[in-house]
Every structure is written in structure tokens, then in C-alpha cells.
User: Fold these one by one.
Assistant:
Number 1:
Amino acid sequence: MTGPYRSPLNEGVSVAAENEFKPIELGPIRLDTPVVLAPMAGVTDWPFRSLCLDWGAGLYVNQMITARALVEENALTWKLAEFGANEPIRSVQLYGTDPEYVTRSVRLLRERLNIDHLDMNFGCPAPKVTRNGGGAAIPAKRKLLYNIVKAAVDAAEDVPVTIKFRKGIDDNHLTFLDSGKIAEDAGCVGVTLHARTAYDLYSDHADWDAIRLLVEHIDIPVFGNGDIWEPWDALRMLRHTGAAGIEIGRGCLGRPWLFNDLVSVLSGREPSYTRPTLGLVATTMLTHLDKLINFYFEDPEESIVRRFRKHAGWYVAGYPVGKETRRLLHAVSSKDELQAVTDNFDFDQTLPLEGVRVKRSHTGGPRKVSLPDGWLQNPDADVKLSPDAEVNVSGG
């Protein structure tokens, strides 16, 4: 393993000084390391969360599920909501558009799954969601946002609630300051800001100045999300914004050891895994697949491996493994086939410098946001969304 690496963006960034970053309390939950794994649909199931947990401390949030599907006893949704037998903090992200369904779903999560923390998603920019007023479109209607969040907080009782949102629809329709205040007034214990608009999608650079403005605007903890690919990025964000903590999404895909490095730099130590070897990648890929097979034991191995393929692509992103190896990884259908491919890795090959910040998963943007007619008029109007606004898609 090579020594600590800093991209040009992070030249001169030093590890944390003693007591520079404080533990965070979210109700009864204490985070000694102010790091959160962003909930990602189809990604942050227990096998992935447990893998990240093996590498470091923090709060690891289950993938997003929808309120209406829970209430209607959708079997797949309840499977997605499952926790590990020994999961230390049972945290889940809920997406809902109707206060009544949100109330009922939160009560079910408390009663059946004994959740310790509830996060709510108001940042999804998918057109199929926003065109019906859902996802990232909800914060444009302040009363609707308040009613949904308040319903969740009341139903959660002593379970702490946080929410995640974007800056707004676009640069002409920014809502993040209002959203933060609404969350605070409704009783949330913290918020996460993905510092891009719905129009931005995942393009360009996250606007860390917006995170700083939100920190100055509300009194509950703010977690910053966006453009954390190296542990040094987290230090820069926290120092620039004054945020209480960070939330990691795309940056940890194929890089679960990032959590180890985050714990290190936030504790005043140099990181160890900024340029991991393909040997570590191979070992971690097989461990990850084993966890998936054990968790989804009722499913055929082939279907589990097929779902793992996206992870395989993220693990080798940035490495010069060649087109043929990538093709083989994209076609594996069993653990033995994955083992055969990884056995041919050059185990001593370290991640090239140009591969450290390779983007993984969502890309794209900017793109005009699809909205219902007249949606941006009268932000305090009473509105009720159709069930079509509640679709379980990844993003935030």
C-alpha cells in the first residue's frame, strides 16, 4: 500500500487537530465520528452497510423505501427495509408524499423493526418523480414539506428524525434555507444538504458555500453532502462550511475503506488507503459477494451475482484492468466466476493517481426539471400529491 496521497485540490490539507471535530448527538444517538453513509436505493442494503461498518465508525443508513408501499404490505419493500441481526444503529430512509401514509409507515417501522433513526428523502431529481410534484419538487411547497415532516416526527415519538434535501429546483428557485428551518420547526434533530439543485443533477461541483449558509441559518446539526472522493475532501468541507458532519454517497462506491481513512484524518492520523491495491479490491469484492449471498440466501446465486455486477464495476473504476476484464466482470454469474476473474488481477497494482477521483454511479446534468404545471407559483399553497409521486428510485 502506498503512502497518503493528496490530489492537487487537497495540497496542504492537514489531518484534524486535537478536538477539532466534536461528536454529534442526534437525540439518543452519539456519533463520535461525524460521518454518515448516504442511503442509496439498490446499494445500501445490510451486506454493503456491514462492509462499510467493518472499515470504520459512523451512521450507516438503510436504502430508501416508500411509505405507501410499506403500508400496503409490499413484500419487496419490507425486504429492502431489513436490518442485520447485530446492526448497532437501525437507521432507515423513508420517502413519502402523503402525511397520512407517512404516519402509518413510521409507526410500522417502529413497531416491527424497532428503528433507532429515521431519515427522510426530499432530494430525488428523477423526472418520473418530480413531474408529479414528488422528490426534489416537494420543498418548493413549504406547507406540504412541513406537513410530511411533522407527521414523521410525531409518529416517530422518541426516534430521532433527520431529512435530506437539495439546494432547490434551480439557481432561480432555491429552497434549502426554508427547508432547513421547516425541519427545525417540525422537530428534526438534523438535516443533510446535497449542495446541488435538482437542475444540476450530479454535474459540476457541489456548492459548499450553500452548506455554510445553512449552518448559519439553523441551530440543528447540518451534514454536508457532495464531492467527497478522498478523506481530505471531508476535512476541506468541514473547515469551509462549519458543518457538524459529512454524508458520503458516490465516493464510497467500490471504496468502502474510505470510512477507515475518514476516521483516521478526523482523528488526527494519516490515512492508509488513498491508493489501494488490486489485491485489496479482489479480497473486498469476494467478501462483499459472500455477504450478499448469506443475506439473500433465499434467492438463486445467479440473481445475487447479477445484482453485484454494478458493484464490481465500481470496485475496478480507475484501474487499468483492460476492456476484457471489465467485460468478464459485467458477465459473471457465480462466485466461482468472480473468483476466476479476480485471480488474474495484478495484486500489487495500486490505484493510479488519475483514478482516485473517478466518478462512480450517477452522472449527468444539468437538465431542466420536470414539474407539474404552475408548481413554482404560490409556495404556501395547500397541495395533495397523487400516488404517482411516490416511486422508489435512487437519488438525492
Number 2:
Amino acid sequence: MVIGGIGGIGVLGFRHIDLSSKVLGLLLIAEVAIVVVLDIAVVGQGGPEGYSTGVFSLSTITSGSPALGLMFAIAGFIGFEATAVFRDEARDPERTIPRATYLALAIIGVFYAISSWAIVTAWGDGGVVERAAADPGSMVVETTDIYLGTLAADVLNVLLVTSLFACALSFHNVLSRYYFNLGNTGVLHSKLGNAHVRHASPASASLTQTVISAALMVVCALAGLDPVLEVFTWLSGIATVGIVALMLLTCAAVLVFFRRTQVDTRPWQTLIAPGLGFLGLAAILVVLVQNLPLLMGESTTLGVAAGVLLLATLVAGPVLARSRPATVALTDSNLEA
């Protein structure tokens, strides 16, 4: 199944983005629809303890490991910034890219918040932790079985698999376009910046990402790592810390850029918003770094190794920037929509 999934993602990623968007759109509609139906059913019937009020209690929010909760909450938003990566393939990027970014943030935040609250309500504030600790993997499916019946639970099981495929395809498309841009700017090999003549896709970058994904899956399988408790948990934790660090640097870059160039002097866009983002992300990054070893199963060695890897990656950026050739300007001729 894994090999078939990687192959299917590789084929879709190699083709024009329209094909991937259609597949992702259909899967997303189906996945969101069944979760919305479950949310409505829980709200309509209530839970064993009525409706959850834990979200309004500071003691509940800060109990357990709030840092890990924060980490996974941020991980749920990873990818919203990728709208800018598809700029060259958008028909009207000046209008659609900002709208898509804000809309993605709003939908993700509201959808996750309501759905999480519904699951807690379904089991009650007093029983949800015990149920999650017993078997977190089957919790949502069992909730669906209770509120919507066995058929809906079976459908949800299928959609969980397709959602993993959709998620992997989304990351594949985004990473391919990062490789494409880095190839065009001379950071990576220039061949990664080649676009397919017929499909107008970052074909070389897509093939590279497919090979890397397959190789990583083989390494993880040979190492005997648990797909959920180790591969997903460790890598998502590292990725979350890395993304927060990059967003923090982006906020700093926005502040410096507009102060230097004065191409835009609107206070909210050039000072207030990036300033607030910088302060918030800095605080979050400190909390995440402090708790990274906890995510690694209380392994200090793994936590330190992850921190060193992230730090080395950040340091490598300025080194590459100084050693690479002059930046190549991206134009619509590189990759046409």
C-alpha cells in the first residue's frame, strides 16, 4: 500500500497542478463532510456529561502537557503558507493568493476547534482523557460508530486512509515547488528548476521528491520504527519547531525589509502585524524547544540531536546564500499556469 501511495502521489505530482487540485478537492469535500455530520450529531445529541466546558477552564487547558498540545495545534496549520508557492500557477496571484491564505487560516482554525470540542463532548470532560490514552487511533472512528452508526464508521475509516494520501500529495506538491524555486535561484541544482514542457509542472523537482520519500520510507521500515508513535510524532515535532523558527525569521525579515525600502508604509501591514507575529512566535518557539525532548519519548539524546539538526539547517542557509551564484529572477516563463 505504501509503495502504491508513493507511486500515485508521484504520478499526480508530475502532472499539471489542475489534476492534483481536482483529486484533493474531491477528497477534502468528502473528508470534511463526514466530520461536519459527526459534529452536528454530537451537538444535537450531547454527550454523557452534557456539553464540554473544559475549553473555558484555565486549569483544564494548562493540565497535562500543554506544550505538546500547542505543538500539535501548530502542526495542524502547517502548509497554510504554501499558497505563495503556487503564485506562478495562479491566474490572478495578487488577489487570489492573499485571499486563499487568510481563508485557509480561518477555515482550519474554526474547523479544528469545533471538531475537537465535539469529540471531547462526545466522551465528556471526565472520560475523554482516559479514552484517548487507551487507544487514540480508534477514538474518532468509535465516536462515529456511536453517533452515526457502523456504516458511517466504515466510511470514515476509508476516508482516514484517503486523507493521509491527500495530505502526502499536498506536501509533495509544496515541496516540489520549493525545490523548483531553490533550483531557479541557484541554491539547489539548476535542473530542479526545469518545468515540464507539456504539463507545465516542476517535473524534475517532483521526481526528486518522490525518490526522497521512497528512500525515507525504506529507512524507517528497516529501522523498525513505529509509524505513529515514532515516525509521525518525531518528525512532526521537528517540523513544527522548524516551521515556527522560519515564520519567526520571516516576521523579522518583513520588519527589516519595509523599514529599509519604504515601499509600503501602512502601519498594520509593515509594523503591527509582523511585530505581533514576531513576539508571539518567539514565545511559542521557546516553549517548543524546551519541550522537544518530551516529544521524543523523554529521550534527551534524541531531543538534543533534533535541536542540533534544526540549528545546523538554519546556519546552512546563510552559508549557502553567500556561496551560491547570483540569484536568478523567476518569471512566468519558468512555470506557466
Number 3:
Amino acid sequence: MSGVPGKPEHMTNPHPPYCQFVPPWLLERLAQPGDRTTMTADPVVQAVEETLRTDIEIRAARAKAPLTTHKATKAAWAVYTAGSKQTLPGKLLRTAGDPENADPAVNEAATGGQAALDLFSQVYGRNSFDDAGAEVIMSVHYGVRYDNAFWNGTQLVFGDGDGQIFDRFTKPVDVLGHELSHAVTERTAGLVYSGEPGALNESMSDVFGICAKQRLLGQTAQQADWLIGEGIFLPGVQARALRDMAHPGTAYDDPKLGKDPQVGSYKDFIHTTNDNGGVHINSGIPNRAFQLAATSIGGSSAEGAGRIWYAALTGTDVGPNTDFAGFAAATVAAAGPHADAVRQAWTTVGVTPAAGSTSSGGTSAAPATVSVRRTGGFAGLTRTGELDLEGDDPRVDDVRRLVQRTDFASLNAQPTAPDAFSYTFSLPEHGEVTVAEPDLTHDLRRLVELLLDTE
């Protein structure tokens, strides 16, 4: 089931961002160890430079390729090996229900992938990342000494690490949960991968990644270590993990890695053009808020604060451009008897939950009326549809959700081809926005269907 029962969930962005587990600035630092005379002979530098080149190629490919979804067949998940190449998915080695494989990376992926799916299914009632039973495809042994893991819009991909700094990226179970959660965020709030919304996007993945880890280990919020990526670094590296949700900025302090730069308070927010506006650095702020809320509520993080965060992510108040204050307000609204604990958690990290609407990506309050006017076509006929969102029409909930999720301010009018339809949407605060039929997003197409009642 979806976050709001009976409501369809569609992507607002057909080319969602390429989300990596290791932030690019950390890899860039490793590529410049300081001694330029030995730099070209350093296997870590070589591995990191190759990882960075690969990441650039992947980002470029994602900007061009449309998003596709694997349909579930006989298994909920499947693990492939890329065989140290970059051709995906590779050779199939194991599917759900199969016995363990001789390859430990395959078994680690299976364990982590199943733990993440179980979290969303058994706790939140979500049927895979798309809530429609999509098969989760995972590829291990990607590239040669590849220092990262990522979700590419279609599947999860994991490198083996360079053998000196990074170990296999399948070893920490929360890495699997982190990457799968990016897919969930894409198909719910669609948080843009930049600035505060981007930091929230990263934080959502850490939140559900840590919930999957704690749940698998049978830990309560108070018992857990709150470390993300524990075990990803090899012995000798001065690091406990990649991130510490309880104490952002303390996960590592190593001569090669440098010191963990994450911040855990809004007063320390880093304004930067790097890392998509600091999405990995500033995610420490909402990460700490979740940890504080989870330990205050007590018990299972997944069952307690996790349910609240999931309800906020999939609810009507969070859209593509929601900021920290907006998301904080959405969690308070979803917290029920735990509202005071959640509010205090955000206040502690310097974020004041916004009053009124929480989505800077949609409208500041639910508009009273939404309408669409379709013009053009061979016959040149006009058709209009309008809906009062304060009424009792059964379409209200779906339309309200789609409007809240769509960033109308970012839509630009495009010329319409001869004999093609164009659609003019009208709603308060945005005025009229006209979109050519080929440029309609999945959400806008669904909105047209509902308003023109063409189902």
C-alpha cells in the first residue's frame, strides 16, 4: 500500500538524480594524498580517480536515459555479478528463495536487500520501492576497485572497494537500505537532489538504512550505535563509519580521509556549490533530528520515529522542494501523541517546524480550486475540467496530492507542435501554467486524467 491509501504514486522527474553512497568530495580528497611524486603509483589514487571518472559517465548517461522499472517476475529480488566490468546487470547468480552462493558479496547483497524490503513491507506496508511489486535488481563486483555504491534509477550497484581504504560496499547492511530508499524517495516526495531538499533526500536514505540495520540486529533506538557504513573501511583506517547520525562530524578522522565534515545543527549549515549544495554534509542535521526523536520515543526506531518519517515522506505535505522546516512540520503533524518529542528533536538541531504548509515545492496552502484547459488538436476543440478541493468529490485526495507534489514554478512554457494538445493549469499562487503534451510529467498526466475525468 502507498503512504496514503488508494493514492497513485508517480515520478515528477523522468531523469532522477544519480545518488552515490560515498560523497564526491571524499573521493576527491583521496585522489590528492599530498605526495605528488608517488601519486601516480598509489593504487588508492588510481582506484579513486577511476571511480570519479566512472561516476561522471554515469551521471551523464542518467541525464539522457529515461527511467525504467523492472517488473517483478518469480522473485522479489535478484543479485547479479558485473564481473569487474561496467555492463549491467551482468550474470545472474541468486534470486529470492535460492540458497546461499559461494560469493560472499552476493550473499551480503541478498541479506541487505531482503532486510530493506522487509522494512518497507512489514512495517510500512509498501510493496517494493515502487509500491507495485517491482523486482529489486542488484549487481555486485561493479568495475575494478570501484569505491562506491549507487542507485541508477533502475537497479542497485555495488563496487568492491580499492582494497586499502574501502572494503566491499555490500558488507554494511545499511548501504543496501540506503540505496533502495533513494528509489522510494524518487517515487514518493521526489525530493530534488540539491540544497536542503537534497540533504533531506540523503537523510531519508540514512534513516531507513539505519532502521533496516537496527531491525535486522534486533536493536532498540537506545541500544543502537547509529553508525552508517560501519565496516566499510578496512583495518588501519581511522574511522568508525562513514557517518554518525547521533554525533555528525565524528565518524572519521584519518590522515588520508581527513576529518568528517558533517554538521549536526542548522546554525552550522554549509552553503556550498559542491556536492549538489552539500547534500551529504548537511544531511547530518535531519539525521540527528531523527536520532533524537527515535531515542525519545523509544523502542524500535523503525516502528516509532520511522513510521512518522515514512508518513511525512509519503504524505501530501512534502514535495520536491520541501526544506528542513517544511519536513519538520510534516513529521510533527504525523507524530500524533509523539508530536512534542518530534518537535523538540528538530528544535534541538536548530530547525523550527514551519507553520502552515510544509512544501515549498507546491503551494503554501491547499488551493480551493484547481482547473485544466486542454486546447489544440486536429479539431481545435477546447475541453476544461475543474475541481473544488474543499468538496467531497472522490478525486479530491488524489488531485490535492498531485498538486502538492508538483513544482509548478519550475515549469516553463514550451512551443506546441502542430495539431498537438497543450494544457493550461490554473491554481492560486502560480497563476496559469501551460505545458505542451510531450512535456507532461507522469504526475501532470495523471492530474489531467482526473480533472478531465477521462479515466
